[in-house]
Write a structure and sequence with these properties.
The radius of gyration is 19 Å and the shape is elongated. The protein is an alpha+beta fold. Strand 6 and strand 7 form a beta hairpin. The chain has helices at 44-56, 81-87; strands spanning 12-21, 24-34, 40-41, 68-71, 74-77, 95-101, 104-109. Bound molecules: zinc ion.
């Protein structure tokens, strides 16, 4: 493994880090952390362990592509089942739509 950060050439230090996904802790894993930019690098074996832990926690594959469809005069975004379960949303759940910019729409559960 490299001992220089691929992004900024900063020096890497071995550390145990609390790995988070979607704001949830997945567990602690050994990483090489860049002293300059803070980027965390995991080796192949650790990446595999992280993936397994994500699957166990039901966090794997929540980011998905979906298509916008029509209903009457409104546009509908379909939310995949796994994502709905993770977010705790169902039919009739009220949400606030907030356009962060023209490429990003934020959906906040009330
Ligand atoms: Zn770096």
């Amino acid at each position: 493994m490299e001992n220089k950060c691929v992004l900024c050439k900063g020096s890497l230090k071995k550390k145990s880090v609390d790995y988070k996904l979607y704001g949830k802790s997945v567990g602690r894993f050994d990483a090489l952390v860049c002293g300059n930019c803070g980027e965390q690098w995991f080796d192949g074996e650790t990446s595999k362990k992280i993936e397994e832990a994500e699957q166990k926690a039901g966090l794997f594959g929540l980011s998905k592509e979906t298509k916008i469809s029509y209903s009457g005069n409104s546009l509908i975004i379909r939310i995949p089942k796994e994502l709905a379960k993770f977010m705790g949303i169902k039919k009739e759940t009220r949400v606030i739509l907030y356009p962060e910019n023209q490429d990003k729409l934020s959906v906040t559960i009330k």
